[in-house]
Automatic annotation (TrEMBL):
<dbReference type="Pfam" id="PF00202">
    <property type="entry name" value="Aminotran_3"/>
</dbReference>
<feature type="binding site">
    <location>
        <begin position="116"/>
        <end position="117"/>
    </location>
    <ligand>
        <name>pyridoxal 5'-phosphate</name>
    </ligand>
</feature>
<dbReference type="GO" id="GO:0006526">
    <property type="term" value="P:L-arginine biosynthetic process"/>
</dbReference>
<feature type="binding site">
    <location>
        <position position="149"/>
    </location>
    <ligand>
        <name>pyridoxal 5'-phosphate</name>
    </ligand>
</feature>
<keyword id="KW-0055">Arginine biosynthesis</keyword>
<keyword id="KW-0028">Amino-acid biosynthesis</keyword>
<feature type="binding site">
    <location>
        <position position="297"/>
    </location>
    <ligand>
        <name>pyridoxal 5'-phosphate</name>
    </ligand>
</feature>
<dbReference type="GO" id="GO:0003992">
    <property type="term" value="F:N2-acetyl-L-ornithine:2-oxoglutarate 5-aminotransferase activity"/>
</dbReference>
<dbReference type="InterPro" id="IPR005814">
    <property type="entry name" value="Aminotrans_3"/>
</dbReference>
<keyword id="KW-0663">Pyridoxal phosphate</keyword>
<keyword id="KW-0808">Transferase</keyword>
<feature type="modified residue" description="N6-(pyridoxal phosphate)lysine">
    <location>
        <position position="269"/>
    </location>
</feature>
<protein>
    <recommendedName>
        <fullName>Acetylornithine aminotransferase</fullName>
        <ecNumber>2.6.1.11</ecNumber>
    </recommendedName>
</protein>
<comment type="similarity">
    <text>Belongs to the class-III pyridoxal-phosphate-dependent aminotransferase family. ArgD subfamily.</text>
</comment>
<dbReference type="InterPro" id="IPR049704">
    <property type="entry name" value="Aminotrans_3_PPA_site"/>
</dbReference>
<dbReference type="GO" id="GO:0042802">
    <property type="term" value="F:identical protein binding"/>
</dbReference>
<dbReference type="InterPro" id="IPR050103">
    <property type="entry name" value="Class-III_PLP-dep_AT"/>
</dbReference>
Amino acid sequence: MTPETLVKTPSTPSSFTTAEFDEYVMKTYGRFPLVLERGQGCRVWDDQGRAYLDFVAGIATCTLGHAHPAIVAAVTEQIQTLHHVSNLYYVRQQGELAKWLVNHSCADRAFFCNSGAEANEGAIKLARKYGHTVLKLENPVILTAHASFHGRTLATITATGQPKYQKDFSPLVPGFHYVPYNDIAALECAIAELDHDQRHVAAIMLEGLQGEGGVRPGDRAYFQRVREICDKTGILLIMDEVQVGMGRTGYWWGYENLGVEPDIFTSAKGLGGGIPIGAMLCKSFCDVFQPGDHASTFGGNPFACGVALAVCQTLENENILTHVQVQGEHLRSGLRHLAEQYPTLIVEVRGWGLINGMELHAEASLTSADVVKAAMQEGVLLVPAGLKVVRFVPPLIVTTAEIDQALHAIARALSTLST
Ligand SMILES: *Cc1c(COP(=O)(O)O)cnc(C)c1O
């Protein structure tokens, strides 16, 4: 190949077509017909130069928005010095990130990987090993909730209490059992029934707020009772903090909204501000992993950890938790105002900090995807959380003015949909 043909290789944005994309990329996603080229703060621009307010943030991931100077600096520094070595050696950035996370959570120790599903796989393995070696269970069972979401690997689609993610992928992984969310009687009943069948519960795995399952906050009394049951029986409490952790709710961790501490928790999405990284953290009493038990080639490399540490420090130095609480309140009150204006379309607005959901009437023909498409026309990116809930997960640095602009655009979108 001559240099000339290399130059002409069709990789520039102008030659890119979505039809070609669909020819070469597996169709695992239903995509909106939008090609984004650039981002700055809470705004992104498409290939036509149109601006959008990004209230998706890579699905609760880009906590510092786009092109944040702290991320640019950390990425640049790390890629110029050392980006990957392997866990054959001590990785300074990994140790520093683990220390930050431990100092800002209830956990004592961390394991690093690359995604939420991988973090949950680690939590499942740790709970099973604890079940076998400490609780002396032959068939340890992990309880999870209906409408939960824990990832797309085989073990995590099994953990996910939604049949639509499991359909066609059997045989699933054994050792999971499902209970309704926020229902303590059902949980107690399931534990007793499993005990009776000689299938004892090793862990209960829950989201503090179900994100994917429709932005449903956990009930404080329920979680406190779950904690009591775990304390009494030795069952581990695993909390999936992949979507609600890292400041999203106005606290570092979703569990802080519920007044409980998990024994194991997982993080990903917001942890790297958009750089792929996941983590599984636990209290020292249940850290039963030995060398050789678990691993990940990319997990905890200097690049991902250096950037994640910069994200953590920036959120902390900019006092982001208070900002998230204030802006979250402002967004919810604006959305509630819209709900009052459109009582036939909107049933409820709910959420914590900057993860909020707007639930549409079950009887109305309108779906969350309809609202997302109409909002996109008005210049705001939103993401569905199931068929009837529209999710709002902007960057944590979102300003009052940006929220007001988004609310006006959503009001225009709702007015076009209600006619
Ligand atoms: C997104 C998500 C996951 C899966 O994370 P991936 O990085 O996509 O593997 C797991 N749990 C929860 C609660 C999530 O929101």
